[in-house]
Amino acid sequence: MHRVTLRYWAGARAAAGVETEQVQASSLAEALEAVKAARPGDAEFARVLDVCSLLRDRRTVPRAALAEPLDADAELELLPPFAGG
Which residues of 6-16 are buried (b: 16+ CB within 10 A; e: fewer)? Predict the structure, then answer.
């Protein structure tokens, strides 16, 4: 198990109610499931997480790669879709 720090941006931060949080997980998928499980019944939070772009070490993480085992602690940034810019 590794420490995963989730950093929320914009609408993801509003849905989470916090800027960052940490969980212990063996994969990024497990980390996302842990933060969803911590908010049972919060369908809006789960919906926002499901549409976020994900970055680890400033690189996009494809959804298909989320289940890969972690080999170290990680920071995952969650960026919701936005208009403009």
Answer: bbbbebbbebb
pLDDT tens-place values along the chain, 85 residues long = 999 999 999 999 999 999 999 999 999 999 999 999 999 999 999 999 999 999 998 899 999 999 999 999 999 999 998 755 4
What domains are defined for the chain? 2-79 (3.10.20.30)
Amino acid at 37: A
Tell me the C-alpha distance between 74 and 76, whole Å: 6
Task: Find how far residue 35's CA is from the centre of its chain.
Answer: 8
Do residues 45 and 36 lie in contact, with contact meaning Cβ atoms separated by under 8 Å? yes
> What's the whole-model pTM score?
0.91
Say how far apart CA 82 and CA 70 lie, in whole Å.
Answer: 29
